[in-house]
Design a protein that fits this description.
About 25% of the residues lie in helices and about 25% in strands. It has helices at about 5-15, 60-70, 95-100, 145, 160-165, 170-190, 260-275, 325-330, 345-350, and strands spanning about 50, 70-80, 80-85, 90, 90-95, 110-115, 130-135, 155-160, 200, 205-210, 215, 220-230, 235-240, 250-255, 280-290, 295-300, 315-320. Strands 1, 2, 3, 4, 5, 6, 7 and 8 form an eight-stranded mixed beta sheet that branches. The protein is globular and about 65 Å long. It starts with a helix and ends in an 11-residue tail after the last helix.
Length: about 375
């Protein structure tokens, strides 16, 4: 029995007077949910696979000591691309990689502590992981690169997350996302916002300190809501941008503005983008999307409206779908919905109540 079922059972056995059966001619009884009731309709929580070591990484010299020990494995990132071989991230010995790249044009701009593998990950528990952010992209198989780096597989390539995400295991996915997020922050927050002085990385790469005013600056994450909007007849509203004849449709989304609650952001964004009123919303789950630095907060929302009015800027097309209409449209290739690696697909399939089959040529 779940907590929600247990609470419901308890409340049913201890009815208050307002919940007792009504006598003839009286108003119907109230059906109250238990206090703090949690609906059993949330997306599953995926366990953490990496311990980011927030306490360990603040020790001065910790990162240099770890790299020098020869015990750490390195993820290699350049721009928005990682070094990938087949269906896996390439992990190289951090000490050897550091030695190979020292005093070369390929010396990393940043070395950042990613954490240690937890039990249940695809790596041995306790495996220490660091990130090497390289200054330039270059062909991995080029002779000049191979002269400096040993152990790079012959088939290794520079690949973006979207290109490879569907093939990566859960641990590599978590590492790629974490590495992208922290690398993006370093590349866009190089100076103190107070005085403009170049800041210096500390705490294993998770803090930047201004040497002029001693202020500390931490990685930024921008909250964004992403929503399935369901009408009074149970149909789902999906939208898309770009050309009017484009086939892509997905959930609606937008950034949370200062001073807003998440629920207020849901109401505002849906109203702005498609002219639909939201009367209720429920949080379902989240997904990090570090391109550049978003945390997608998934909601489902209800509306009494049956017509949508796209704003013509962010959303140019909007359509309502019943379950059968959506599945038929996807299978026929009439529309394309979000890929399975995204929370958008999870939200859509949560509404659908199961797996939506893709068209054969997109499976």
């Amino acid at each position: 029995m779940s907590l929600a079922e247990s609470a419901a059972s308890s409340s049913a056995s201890q009815q208050t007077p307002s919940e007792s059966p009504a006598s003839d001619g009286a108003a119907p009884p109230l059906h109250l949910l238990p206090a703090n009731h949690l609906m059993e309709t949330v997306l599953p929580v995926r366990p953490a696979l990496i311990d980011r070591g927030s306490a360990a990484r603040v020790k001065p010299g910790m990162l240099a000591e770890l790299v020098g020990s020869g015990a750490a494995q390195a993820v290699v990132l350049s721009g928005r691309q990682a070094l990938v071989s087949g269906n896996s991230l390439v992990l190289l010995n951090a000490a050897e990689l550091s030695g190979h790249l020292a005093n070369t044009p390929y010396a990393p701009e940043h070395v950042i502590y990613l954490g240690s593998a937890l039990a249940g990950s695809d790596l041995d528990a306790g495996t220490e992981l660091v990130l090497f952010v390289l200054p330039l992209q270059f062909e991995v198989q080029a002779e000049e690169f191979e002269a400096h780096v040993a152990g790079v597989p012959s088939d290794a390539q520079w690949v973006g997350f979207r290109e490879v995400a569907a093939r990566l295991n859960a641990t590599d996915t978590a590492l790629f996302i974490e590495a992208s997020a922290i690398a993006n922050w370093h590349s866009t927050h190089t100076h103190c916002p107070r005085c403009g002085t170049p800041t210096q990385p500390e705490a294993g790469g998770w803090v930047r300190r201004c040497p002029a005013d001693n202020s500390e600056h931490f990685p930024r994450t921008d909250p964004a809501i992403i929503v399935t909007v369901v009408g009074p007849d149970g149909r789902l509203l999906l939208g898309g941008g770009g050309p009017l004849d484009a086939r892509n449709y997905s959930t609606l989304a937008g950034f949370v503005e200062p001073g807003e609650s998440l629920e207020q952001a849901v109401q505002r964004e849906i109203g702005e983008e498609v002219g639909v009123r939201v009367t209720a919303s429920q949080y379902l789950g989240s997904q990090s999307w570090p391109f550049p630095a978003s945390l997608m907060l998934g909601f489902t929302a209800t509306t009494p409206d049956t017509e949508a009015r796209p704003d013509g800027v962010e959303v140019t097309r909007a359509r309502w779908f019943s379950r059968s209409e959506l599945q038929d449209a996807v299978l026929s290739g009439e529309i394309v919905i979000s890929s399975r690696l995204s929370i958008a697909r999870s939200l859509i399939e949560h509404w659908y109540g199961g797996v939506i089959q893709d068209a054969p040529d997109s499976a």
